[in-house]
Amino acid sequence: MSQRANGSGFATAGPDFPDLPEATVARLPEYLRALHNLAEDDQDTVSSEGLAAAAGVNSAKLRKDLSHLGSYGTRGVGYDVQLLIEQIEQVLGLHESRAVALVGIGNLGHALAGYAGFATRGFHIAALFDADPHRVGERVGTMTVRDIAEVEAVVDAERISIGVIATPAHAAQRVADRLVAAGVTSILNFAPCVLVVPDGVDVRKVDLAIELQILSFHEHRKSALTALPAKAVGQ
Amino acid sequence: MSQRANGSGFATAGPDFPDLPEATVARLPEYLRALHNLAEDDQDTVSSEGLAAAAGVNSAKLRKDLSHLGSYGTRGVGYDVQLLIEQIEQVLGLHESRAVALVGIGNLGHALAGYAGFATRGFHIAALFDADPHRVGERVGTMTVRDIAEVEAVVDAERISIGVIATPAHAAQRVADRLVAAGVTSILNFAPCVLVVPDGVDVRKVDLAIELQILSFHEHRKSALTALPAKAVGQ
Fold first, then answer.
1. What protein family is recorded (chains A, B) (predicted)?
2. ipTM of the prediction
3. How confident is the model over A15-50, as pLDDT tens digits?
4. Please, what are the domains in chain A?
5. How far is residue A2 from each of residues A185, A189, A234, B73, B107, measured CA to CA in Å?
């Protein structure tokens, strides 16, 4: 995760952008989803404990995260649901709907193209690309897969700032280079490889095997616990 | 992330399981992948800087992570690639191949079923399940989609310990309950919802819209930087 060098001598982007810990930024979308659920149930206020449980974090961490936004709730009442939704959406920049380009329309690309969450939370997929001539021209939902050769023109015309890479690993760096050259400044990478990008471009990586390996660690630890010799119990 | 209550009075699982920070556990698979790439290139040793660059982290963090495993490298030489691979695989429990059940065989389920990373890094998909009668019986690769009604019997017969949920959100909790009742102790959840599970069951969540929202924060911050008035430059 790198931040654009702005050349102005400013260390931060000003008071609208408190320098939030990356882990806090990562939890804000969880709070937002929980808050939207509460709002749908016509709940006007929520305690920190209630919101923490709905988001699956502990309440001390939640209070600390929200204090970074200047939100402290009201003693005995809790947080105003609508106000907190607005504050978080403001910080995350979700008032605009960002245009996303999706590259690599295999099974995963199809799954991502059909992912309802993209349309409802500040994003819309503006273009689908593939390098395979057999895929170019294919209809996916309401869209048509385009040739990756068109990426520069389309990114410019559709004002796309985010690229999602769902190609095989060997193609991912080349795709990233093209997206960045075309003007994309954030990349979500599903290919199992590390991308090299210039300063000012943010990359987030989702690697499904890595998620499983992290679970494997916990499984392994649990098996070891279960396998402790009986005589050790109570020591 | 919860750890099984072991009832033995042991606070940790013993010397084989140093109590690793969750963030360190999350980075070990990255190091492992980079090390495998180095081994394929016949590299016997690697500096902390070289490995850090290949894994996309900073080298001080890498050295600290590996020191938790008791690996400090050799001054002027670096880390032994094969030895470090073995140490990390040992800690992650990747010497065994764990059986995984995948539930929900839509686009995402198809993508996951075809994901090569699962087969090569300590995992194999042992069963596919869906609740839709139109999907049950469908061939996916070398496997056949089974009825979710069979989940208890299959989890037991195939010794499945990890469940991957790729269903719509409204079905995910019910599926999780069935997997846990059947004996699954780790869940990777792709459905956009928080799962409630008993102590001793680990859940990791992958939410694709949340990854995009985190990128949105960085995009938003970058736009604000770009929009700074010219007269402020140099202040």
1. Belongs to the transcriptional regulatory Rex family.
2. 0.75
3. 456 678 888 998 998 899 899 889 988 999 999 999
4. 22-92 (1.10.10.10), 98-210 (3.40.50.720)
5. 11, 15, 49, 28, 32
